[in-house]
TrEMBL record:
GO terms of molecular function: enoyl-[acyl-carrier-protein] reductase (NADH) activity
The family this protein is said to belong to: Belongs to the short-chain dehydrogenases/reductases (SDR) family. FabI subfamily.
Keywords in alphabetical order: Fatty acid biosynthesis, Fatty acid metabolism, Lipid biosynthesis, Lipid metabolism, Oxidoreductase
Protein name as it appears in the record: Enoyl-ACP reductase
GO biological process, one term: fatty acid biosynthetic process
InterPro entries according to UniProt: Enoyl-ACP_Rdtase_NADH, NAD(P)-bd_dom_sf, SDR_fam
Pathway per the UniProt entry: Lipid metabolism
Gene3D superfamilies given in the database record: NAD(P)-binding Rossmann-like Domain
Pfam family for this entry, one: adh_short_C2
Amino acid sequence: YLIKMAAAAGIQSTRAPFCTPPQTSSAHLTTRSRACNLAPKVVPFTSSSSCLPKGASLQSYSFFPSTLHLSKSIKREPVQFSRKTTVVHASASENGASSGLSIDLRGKRAFIAGIADDNGYGWAIAKSLAAAGAEILVGTWVPAMNIFETSWKRGKFDESRILPNGSLMEISKIYPMDAVYDTPEDVPEDVKSNKRYAGASNWTVQELAECVKQDFGSIDILVHSLANGPEVIKPLLETSRNGYLAAISASSYSFVSLLKYFIPIMNPGGSTISLTYIASERIIPGYGGGMSSAKSALESDTRVFQLFFASLDINIAGTK
């Protein structure tokens, strides 16, 4: 999983002109083999579940933009997909990072949007990045902020914070956030007056990015670990328009918003990663309310951003 995070951070990435995926029958199409029509050569990485929540599994695709400026002369060639198994060894070192890791993210700063406990993928990714030496910043949904901070301070997460070298994962700062709202002007009055938001400030995406810039200057890695569907248990035909659009807003457009405001404070060679779900391409009973559509939109947007940021030396990746 650390290798996967390294790929997201642009470490040892292979860059190639944009090209189309190989021809394959529709019966055998998978996200990995059809990452996107614009995807360059895929970088193999290890898939390890050691850092994931118990019982969780992860299928992944990873793709990287070329830093070359686009032109009509770009040569297109089939993508070659392969798997490579890499054994990662971790051992303690003086600087706190695991000296046996195949990647080194010391000096890098990562912002993970969407951590509110120690059970989700966001937490697992934060631990992987921290184990590789990265500084960790976290964005937590405003209504969950108080509980998360209190649990952190009281040591309720200490066991989950243990890294491969025996040290505890540190979080430099926990920020309140609600990625459904881009700017303060977007927040409706009923939300502003809601007691769950009382006492919180600077939690829209624009304000959040400004606060991170003021506190730390820049980031190197941005992780989108956000999803919410208020009507997720409803079949699609029973989903209301508001419920459907709410799922899209929180689960996919939030990625668009984060990139809009965080890319300006991202260092050259920086990376972003979005987390999607297999329901984007398969029917998953019980996963309704427009959430499967939201995950499909997230994957599509991730592919579009590959092309959009290709000339800016920004790596865009997605995983499921």
